[in-house]
What does this fold into?
Amino acid sequence: MHHALCAVVEPIFERGFIDHTFANRGGKGTHRAIEAYERYRDRYAHVLRCDIYRYFPAIDHAILKSDFRRRIFCPSTLALLDLIVDASNPQEPVYLYFDGDDLFAPFQRRRGLPIGNLTSQFFANLYLDGFDHFVTEVLRAPYVRYVDDFALFHNNPAVLSEWRLRIERYLVGRRLRLHPRKTMILSCSEPAQFLGFELHADGRRRLPENNVRRFRNRLRGMRDRWQAGTISPNDVYARVGAWIAHAEHADTWRLRHAIFRGRRFDPANAPEAWTAPCRRVVRGGSWNNNPENLRSANRNRNTTDNRNNNLGFRVGRTLIAGAGTITVASGAH
It folds into this structure.
């Protein structure tokens, strides 16, 4: 029913959406938003990064219903839209006060949409449609938005500071506030995290380390389940395929070598990619120290006058089913 309703209602509003809002729209998406962010970053010196405080729980039902009535006039359709909004399950409380509110206003006004519903994603776009036009037509700012995460660009940080104040005043009319810790002005030359990537000014895209760690732990657990015969390859792909497709847009050399032996994830041949013959390097240890101290990634953090002569070796082996060729190269570290 949610899909059927969006198929009818969404095209009516889609015509009025600006081009640079990218969430849950055909031909848009996360990676198009990142490309737009990078184009603006390369042209401007500073960026105003903004996030709305508890956006989905803070969406006001009365304001959202008034947005429906700007373009929908069918009583039956409006009744169905209102029913979906009114039937939203309770969200985490957001106790925000605005001018004119009395003590009980945050408890009397219905707020919040469940994130998982298809209609909620569409309603989230619609709720900030007027804000999109304000930023692009009144402020005339270079602008990218994905749900409640958005960025404005300019060469002068003072202009961005003024824009932030005007944005805060506008959002009061929507009963929203900017997130105090996630809203900031940054130099475009600094690395910035946006939509799951760490974006660098030289064009590199990295995956945040905590995201990679969580994914590797999750994938390792599914690999063990696959080897035990409790999960099928199709189940593995259904659960991790979307994340891997997302990760392929970044510099994932280390991740691919750690998990897929340097290859790209092939859903038609996964998880056999975990066990395919490959070339790899096995690191050895030093003669007078712990094995991990031979790794360049491991640092003792000694003082500058500390000197060690830790000789070590590395073993390179070609893993082929049933046989192996081993070569040894020694060297100082």
The longest strand covers residues 311-320. The chain has twelve helices and ten strands.
